[in-house]
Amino acid sequence: MLRNKLFILIISISSLSLILSGIVYYKNMNSIFEDQAILSIKHDKKIFNSYLKEKKEQIKNLSFGVANNENTKLSLNLISNYQDPKNYSKETFDYEKQRLLELSSQWVSLKEGISLSLYDKNRSLVITNSELEGKRNKGYLSYENQKAIFVDLIDKKNQSFPKLKDINNFKKNSFTFVQKENSIVSVYLKEVYLGEKLVGYLKVCFNIDSSFLNTLKENFMNNVIFQLDNQKYIFVDNLNKKAFNSIKDSKDYLIKKSKITDGKTSIYLVNILNKETINKKIRKTIETIILIWFMILSITIFLSYIFTKKYILNPIENLQKIIENIKKNTKLSSLKTNKKTKDEIKNISNDFKQLSTALDKNIAFLNSYQSIMDEAAIVSKSDLKGKITYVNDNFVTISGYTREESIGSPHSLIRHPDTPKEVFEDLWNTIQNKKIWKGTLKNKRKDGSYYWVNLIIRPLLDENDNITKYIAFRYDITELIEQRETIKKAANTDKLTGLCNRSKLINDIKKFDMPALSFFNVDSFRQVNDFYGHLFGDRLIIELASFLQEEFINNKNIRIYRTQADEFALLSNLSSSFEKESFFGEVYKLNRKINNNLFKIENEDLNLNITSSISYENKDKLLPTANMALKHAKKNAVDLLVYKDDYSLDKMYENNIKWTKKLKIAISEDKIVPFFQPIINNKTKKIEKYESLVRLIDEDDKVISPFFFLEISKKTKHYGTITKTVIKKSFEKFKDSDYEFSINLTIEDILNEDIQSYIFFMLEKYQIGQKVVFEIVESESIENFAEVSKFISEVKKYGVKIAIDDFGTGYSNFEYLLKLKADFVKIDGSMIKDIHKNEDSRAVVSVIVDFAKKMNMKTIAEFVENKEILDVLYELDIDYSQGYHFSAPKKDID
């Protein structure tokens, strides 16, 4: 019965499908061919849009990279804020713009139609590297006699500005399409910020023209023509243009257009269809289909019977037998199985036969997996009420409870009292909602000790999605938790002394209601390190820390901290039983005891002097005010100082603002100048070289020392400009002189890529490297020694010499002299100014001189203020002298 019905159904469906498909095909043939044309246009449109999107992303990425480039931001900031047509410094600003143009060559590719322009914050052109209407424009804005000119690097004689559209016409951070004669220019405008300050604008363009479209021509399915704003056409080649002009008004052709872009200017993709070609295809296709219909219908009737019997009915009968055997739990392997064929239903029968074997394998795998989990994890199961129904060996081992004690007990058996009840409420709410709970818990052993676990609890569901039980996997992480606590303790502990560190001090201040803080600093500790060595200094700090701990061992009101190298802190939480007067008294007594105590280190007896400060300010001001009071105490040589509003931060800020303003005026008016102090050859008694020292000329022509403005310049980012100015004016001063001249450089100067580049630029330009001495200003240490060494090697190729400034205070490490390949050692003035009456200073300087002579280095003494000092320098055979005994720094050289 099923066989006959299935045969009739197959024949009916086949016949009806053929007839209906023919009718539908005939009626819609014309639209089919048109739809194919539309699909091909969509294909071409997709290719074009994909390429356009890629171009836009490329432009956006380029714009982001340029706008966030440190050199771009710094240069635009300098140009926007400081270039002045009335007092235009071509050396500075033309150099910056040339650098921007060099960078732009790395960013743009005119071959790919990409161009770039930079504008200052007033939307005035700075540089451009572009191609407009077939003409390249590469140059920058400059001024001559207060007149704006365009310095064209391609056409040197040209000073007229390129025809660039006003950037006010473009939206920021979006694409604007502008129509040109034979192309469309896509413009992307982006603001450039230095921090939160707008310093300029970046404009990136790319052209959509015939050259642009030819890159995509091979991927198009049609002969592509583009139309702009329904009026102007762009042709990929001349053949398309000629063909289109002859047929665009003909009724025998069908023209299809598809809009590609939005905006002020729209682009359309145009495709041309020949109607006669479509009609011929329709007639021929219909004739072929009618013939095929009759052939298929005959063959279908014949094959339907064979197919139905062999490939559907017989396999179904076999499948039914297999299913019956499965129900009776008959072994499937006892049934005959055939090889795999192309008959899908027969393959299903074979798969059923192998099902039993696969299930057995899976069960074995699951058993193995359970065994592994039992080995690795602490496993337990519980019923819906939370009572334990199963535990593995690991549970028994780590908890200390036997299986008999565990099974039937609630899980609270191992709950530790330190865990808040809210955690368990969250746990139960989660798993009862059929979700997995994960977390870290502290559990309790039978003996009362604890252990930490990473816990995962999962509800197990039946076929009706109801919870049947819960299973818990725990992993012992006690060791990790204890290690974390150890690390946390280390983060709050000073490694050398074992005292709490600055980080712990900051956290403790936050916890106290009325904190009082005292800083105290060991006077002249640096000299101890320099004279005895750092290991000796460390032992002194350890001894002082022990002294403090012993002093306050029974005082629970005061906590001790080591905040940095030679600085300690005392912190107290003031209360009715311990007020300000008590805290002050404790700090005062400590000062007296330390100053009167004799510290014995390695058979050396040392008397220490300390300077202390106290602050009772609010928590948010406690640290800075205590630190400020300490600075005032050291500056005024006071042993103990309590913070008052007279030392407030407001005055510091006011002073910073004042000197920032003076700096800006001095830079804009070119009043940052070098003064020159002579350096005397002690053998010839003649001036042999000069040191360039920066000065600021105030509004009333007063000469200002760098003490007042140099640190401020570093905070306001004017320091680099000052350094460049001193370098430039010193090179210009000595270019025609026979004297050598030295310029001070800090480690930060050397590691600054911009200042490095400027130094090499000036050495190349002036070619007077043999006259130049770079004095490296002393530092506690050189972190990036490889970079500093590389810089020294490079400048020495120009004949430059290297001097180590202030030797004897910070470096005090003769190894640095060797590694830095120094030519001169400038002995620090603190050891020279009293060398005629201080035997210790004389001994140290003598050692430095002996070492320098052995290493073939020249020595220079600073702070030579009288003849008595000079006579001692002659005796010690120091090579050069410098100081007010000869001359103060002057504006000119002799």
UniProtKB/TrEMBL annotation:
<feature type="transmembrane region" description="Helical">
    <location>
        <begin position="6"/>
        <end position="26"/>
    </location>
</feature>
<dbReference type="InterPro" id="IPR000014">
    <property type="entry name" value="PAS"/>
</dbReference>
<dbReference type="InterPro" id="IPR029787">
    <property type="entry name" value="Nucleotide_cyclase"/>
</dbReference>
<dbReference type="Pfam" id="PF00990">
    <property type="entry name" value="GGDEF"/>
</dbReference>
<feature type="domain" description="PAS">
    <location>
        <begin position="383"/>
        <end position="434"/>
    </location>
</feature>
<dbReference type="InterPro" id="IPR000700">
    <property type="entry name" value="PAS-assoc_C"/>
</dbReference>
<dbReference type="InterPro" id="IPR001610">
    <property type="entry name" value="PAC"/>
</dbReference>
<feature type="domain" description="PAC">
    <location>
        <begin position="435"/>
        <end position="489"/>
    </location>
</feature>
<dbReference type="InterPro" id="IPR001633">
    <property type="entry name" value="EAL_dom"/>
</dbReference>
<feature type="domain" description="EAL">
    <location>
        <begin position="656"/>
        <end position="894"/>
    </location>
</feature>
<feature type="transmembrane region" description="Helical">
    <location>
        <begin position="288"/>
        <end position="307"/>
    </location>
</feature>
<dbReference type="InterPro" id="IPR043128">
    <property type="entry name" value="Rev_trsase/Diguanyl_cyclase"/>
</dbReference>
<dbReference type="InterPro" id="IPR000160">
    <property type="entry name" value="GGDEF_dom"/>
</dbReference>
<dbReference type="InterPro" id="IPR035965">
    <property type="entry name" value="PAS-like_dom_sf"/>
</dbReference>
<dbReference type="InterPro" id="IPR050706">
    <property type="entry name" value="Cyclic-di-GMP_PDE-like"/>
</dbReference>
<dbReference type="Pfam" id="PF13426">
    <property type="entry name" value="PAS_9"/>
</dbReference>
<dbReference type="InterPro" id="IPR035919">
    <property type="entry name" value="EAL_sf"/>
</dbReference>
<dbReference type="Pfam" id="PF00563">
    <property type="entry name" value="EAL"/>
</dbReference>
<keyword id="KW-1133">Transmembrane helix</keyword>
<keyword id="KW-0472">Membrane</keyword>
<keyword id="KW-0812">Transmembrane</keyword>
<protein>
    <submittedName>
        <fullName>EAL domain-containing protein</fullName>
    </submittedName>
</protein>
<feature type="domain" description="GGDEF">
    <location>
        <begin position="513"/>
        <end position="646"/>
    </location>
</feature>
